[in-house]
């Protein structure tokens, strides 16, 4: 339904594209009056991210007392819908500052190139060194920064310490994915518990983590679709191996994964760092029983680091108060205390590297087996391979989930399923 | 013999109907039960059929997430005001189309029917821009006014009113009644079933309306129920207990509304169907 609506909106834009030419001139970029930063700005966000944005306002006002900030909170699907309507009608009713998931940025920026402020032109380039390369890759558009980097999701495999001990598996011995399968079989035989949850027909999360750790994605470095790469075949074969050994719990959606985590139906969950917040929140009884290790690698010496999810902050080009909006965005994403606040209260893992020295991040976590779990995540941020994301990311991900289902549930050979997926994606995005 | 056959047929029919009732009522019952359970237990297999004791906790978290009384008030206010004004307007329009002769009547009616075929998504953007120009974002009138003249309601009222005999109106005119007097004292009372049907239809459509309020409303204290319930679906976690409770509560007013008017509802919907 929503997809349908969005495509309809896009159609309307195309049809009515020529009508508003006269107004285009005034949506210029840049600073009109560099001296003054004042006025009222509106910020759109969702969930705990919106809460974090609200919490930051007090400190922001110490520096910019003349700016009023109002944070409005929607669920993310609703926010995108409202945002699309606002962009289609050339900024009507749009907020000044917008939170967006990384994977959505290429789509919006390509579709509405005039809708968002070029942050590089506002001077954000000077902060480049504060963030990792992989994160910057996600927020750039044609060599300019269009979104200020906020949170990220360095990956790891969360595991149940008690179950591992009971089954006699040592987490440190798991280095390659084959070790992971072996450990999984051992746990399955001893305790009857599956190794990991995958929402087979809807989410290719584990597959895409494997892709990223090998430094690639659905698209190669030339931005071409590449679903039949060596890495893709290897990753899908591994997912199939996990499934064939009966180590995968096929459950539906985010809630399925959370439920499996809480109820002890799985021994491990490969996911992003922000999942720590969910585990602590939903399973307070399991305190001390969780820990993490890095993603297993495919061969000795391969990298074990990846990233899932993350979000960034964009400024509307139609904002009447660009200076204030930019000032808030810059402050929010580069202020160490503010970023730590969001991490401490809600588990939103900052991409701002200067936060990683803080005791909040380096200390041992009582919940996670008294291990410095957050430091483990922070340590790998700079080493996460940078991969290509583009506006077709969402479609590619859905098609890969279908391919995953056909390989695992219908027994289609990997090569064949991937070739079919690639063909399908090429057809779907042909313009 | 014949009697016996009749009884078996009846039994068969009732068994079928009973199955239908169970199928259509079960999700509803499950929702009510769900509102008394903690989020984690709602999706257990087999589904829980006995209410739990988590109702108060769900109510508490629901009230923490949103100002439920305020949201309920917004929804009620908008739906009631909308229904009253819209019913009146559409009845008048339907009356005019059914009983008056004027130039361009057929063409105008055709135009109105045409608008029935335009999906709302097409008018969404222009309408939104009008709201922005009028500075009406985040207001009640932005939700009530754009859809105040419902083509379907006008159509339904016209079809019903065609059946009113012209001689009745002529008699009233001869007795010296003005047009408004005729409309309010003669037409409206005879149209009760149709009015009930149109009221329920308009009330429901406004009560359940999500897309338009979602686009035009920005602040939490203006949210209507569907928008507020949708905002409960968080990025990282969804507390289904509180969602179920909110949904259950949001059904109550519409249930009451329907029960009040249901006797007239069926009659009204079918009213224009014989002689159209």
UniProtKB/TrEMBL annotation, chain A:
Gene3D superfamilies: Periplasmic binding protein-like II. The keyword Kinase does not apply. The keyword ATP-binding does not apply. InterPro entries: Bact_solute-bd_prot1 (IPR050490), SBP (IPR006059). Residues 1-21 form the signal peptide. Coiled coil: none annotated. Pfam families: SBP_bac_8. Keywords: Cell membrane, Lipoprotein, Membrane, Palmitate, Signal. PANTHER family: ARABINOSE-BINDING PROTEIN-RELATED (PTHR43649), POLYGALACTURONAN_RHAMNOGALACTURONAN-BINDING PROTEIN YTCQ (PTHR43649:SF33). This is Lactose/L-arabinose transport system substrate-binding protein. It comes from Sporosarcina limicola.
From TrEMBL, chain B:
Residues 72-261 form the ABC transmembrane type-1 domain. This is Lactose/L-arabinose transport system permease protein. The chain crosses the membrane at residues 12-32, 71-95, 107-128, 140-161, 182-204, 240-261. GO terms for cellular component: plasma membrane. Its main location: membrane. GO terms for biological process: transmembrane transport. The keyword Nucleotide-binding does not apply. Belongs to the binding-protein-dependent transport system permease family. It is a multi-pass membrane protein. Pfam families: BPD_transp_1 (PF00528). InterPro entries: MetI-like, MetI-like_sf. It comes from Sporosarcina limicola. Keywords: Cell membrane, Membrane, Transmembrane, Transmembrane helix, Transport. It is found in: Cell membrane. PROSITE patterns: ABC_TM1 (PS50928).
């Amino acid at each position: 339904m929503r997809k349908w609506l969005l495509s309809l909106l896009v159609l309307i834009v195309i049809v009515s594209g020529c009508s508003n030419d006269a107004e285009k001139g005034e949506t210029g970029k840049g600073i009109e009056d560099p001296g003054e930063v004042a006025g009222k700005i509106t910020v759109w966000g969702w969930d705990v991210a919106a809460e974090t944005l609200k919490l930051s306002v007090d400190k922001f006002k110490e520096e910019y007392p003349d700016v009023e900030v109002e944070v409005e909170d929607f669920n993310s699907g609703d926010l995108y819908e409202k945002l699309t309507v606002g962009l289609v009608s050339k900024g009507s009713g749009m907020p000044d500052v917008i939170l967006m998931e990384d994977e959505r940025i290429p789509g919006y920026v390509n579709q509405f190139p005039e809708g968002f402020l070029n942050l590089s032109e506002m001077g954000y380039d000077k902060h480049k060194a504060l963030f990792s390369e992989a994160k910057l890759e996600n927020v750039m558009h044609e060599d300019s920064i269009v979104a200020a980097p906020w949170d990220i999701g360095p990956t790891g495999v969360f595991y149940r310490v008690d179950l591992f001990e009971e089954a006699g598996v040592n987490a440190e011995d798991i280095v390659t994915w084959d070790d992971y399968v072996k450990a999984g079989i051992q746990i399955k035989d001893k305790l009857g518990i599956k190794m990991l949850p995958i929402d087979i027909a809807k989410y290719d999360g584990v597959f895409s983590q494997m892709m990223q750790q090998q430094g690639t994605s659905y698209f190669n470095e030339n931005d071409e679709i590449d679903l039949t790469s060596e890495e893709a075949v290897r990753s899908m074969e591994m997912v199939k191996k996990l499934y064939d050994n009966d180590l995968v719990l096929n459950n539906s959606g985010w809630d399925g994964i959370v439920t499996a985590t809480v109820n002890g139906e799985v021994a491990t969950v490969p996911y992003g760092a922000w999942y720590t917040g969910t585990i602590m929140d939903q399973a307070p009884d399991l305190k001390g029983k969780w820990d993490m290790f890095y993603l297993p690698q495919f061969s000795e010496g391969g990298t074990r680091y990846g990233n899932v999810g993350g979000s960034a902050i964009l400024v509307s080009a139609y904002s009447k108060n660009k200076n204030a909006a930019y000032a808030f965005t810059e402050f929010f994403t580069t202020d160490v205390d503010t970023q730590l606040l969001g991490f401490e209260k809600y588990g939103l893992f900052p991409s701002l590297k200067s936060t990683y020295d803080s005791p909040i991040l380096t200390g041992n976590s009582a919940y996670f087996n008294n291990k410095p779990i957050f430091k483990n995540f922070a340590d790998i941020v700079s080493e996460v391979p940078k991969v290509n994301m583009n506006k077709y990311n969402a479609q590619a991900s859905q098609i890969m989930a279908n391919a995953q289902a056909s390989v695992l549930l219908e027994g289609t050979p990997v090569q064949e399923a991937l070739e079919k997926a690639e063909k399908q994606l090429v057809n779907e995005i042909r313009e | 013999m014949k009697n016996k056959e009749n009884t078996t047929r009846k039994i068969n029919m009732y068994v079928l109907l009973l199955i239908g009732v169970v199928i259509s009522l079960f999700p509803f019952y499950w929702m009510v039960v769900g509102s008394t359970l903690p989020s984690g237990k709602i999706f257990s297999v087999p589904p829980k059929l006995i209410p739990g004791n988590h109702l108060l906790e769900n109510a508490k978290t629901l009230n923490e997430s949103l100002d439920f009384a305020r949201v309920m008030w917004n929804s009620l206010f908008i739906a009631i005001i909308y229904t009253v004004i819209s019913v009146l307007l559409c009845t008048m329009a339907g009356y005019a189309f059914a009983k008056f002769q004027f130039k361009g009547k057929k063409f105008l009616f055709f135009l109105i029917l045409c608008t029935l075929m335009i999906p709302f998504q097409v008018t969404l953007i222009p309408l939104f821009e009008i709201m922005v120009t009028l500075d009406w974002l985040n207001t009640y009138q932005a939700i009530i006014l754009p859809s105040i003249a419902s083509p379907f309601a006008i159509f339904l009222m016209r079809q019903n009113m065609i059946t009113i005999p012209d001689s009745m109106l002529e008699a009233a005119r001869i007795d010296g009644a003005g047009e408004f007097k005729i409309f309010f004292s003669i037409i409206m009372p005879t149209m009760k079933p149709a009015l009930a049907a149109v009221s329920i239809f308009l009330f429901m459509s406004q009560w359940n309306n999500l897309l338009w309020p979602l686009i035009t409303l920005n602040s939490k204290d203006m949210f209507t129920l569907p928008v507020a319930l949708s905002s409960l679906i968080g990025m990282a976690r969804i507390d289904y207990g509180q969602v179920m409770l909110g949904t259950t509560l949001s059904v109550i007013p519409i249930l009451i509304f329907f029960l009040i008017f249901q006797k007239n509802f069926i009659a009204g919907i079918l009213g224009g169907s014989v002689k159209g």
